[in-house]
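name: query_chain
kind: protein
chains: 1
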Amino acid sequence: MGAMPFSNSSELSPSFLLAGLPGLEGAHSWLAAALCSAYVLAVLANGAVLLAVRAEPGLHVPMYFFLCMLAAIDLALASATVPRTLCLYWLGSREIGFGACLLQMFLIHALSAAESTVLLAMAADRYVAICHPLRHAAVPGGRATAAVGLLALARGVLFFLPLPLLLLPLPFCGPRLLSHSFCLHQDVMNLACANTTPSVVYGLAAILLVMGLDAVLICLSYLLILRAVLRLAAWRERLKVFSTCIAHICGVLAFYVPLIGLSVVHRFGKDLAPLVHIIMGNIYILVPAVLNPIIYGVRTKQIQRRILSLIHVTDRAPR
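structure:
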């Protein structure tokens, strides 16, 4: 007999099973320890960046305000997924309710869209700073960056709120086992036993109009930057100017490479081992949150000095 569908009514509230490591249940505690360590590192590193930028007047410029936005988004994204994943690996709690799954799915996609928007704004900031330095100096940093932050959040919400709404009325069939240790739109959608064409079309359109468009515009901004840099006469001057973009380029790669990898695994990796899906999902969530503060901390001496001074003050505080 075929699998019986169940409705999303209050009488029968559906739930899903998050994916652990099939056949490697004994390694759950080790994976949980690694995830917990990465999460703690992300919280401490991003928190340190937020404190450093706030405390250092010399960093009160759009680029580092945008960096603070990235740190806040990464913290929110990791906090929306990692604690629930740790419950799975440490406590064996695999079941997640339908409402909680849709909320987590919405937060992941909306926050990812907001991060993509901030990365685009940072690319535009680098373009204006290098190609139109006088105009860049005249831009009021606080108001402009606050407007970009609100736009990034609004863009994420408006484009990705329809995703859970499209899934809400659908019936789902068992088994209700997801491919990851958290909820993603395509993963949940594949379990529906009804026509999912509207959800497929809208999900693909949203991804292309947000992350896809942002990636194209970021590449275009760097082509213009590269053209402007190559017009400089001295190689040393070219390297000095382009080096101001290195941290942002690394941040873009840290975000888009795991995103593209996860998308490829979803589209073409149906025959891959479940472990590949789980690892790619965790990389997508945690790599930007861990790498971004390290990248900018290494590239910015002011952030390094301020963080070291904060640590020094903490060490000298009376106990």
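note: The chain has a mean pLDDT of 84.
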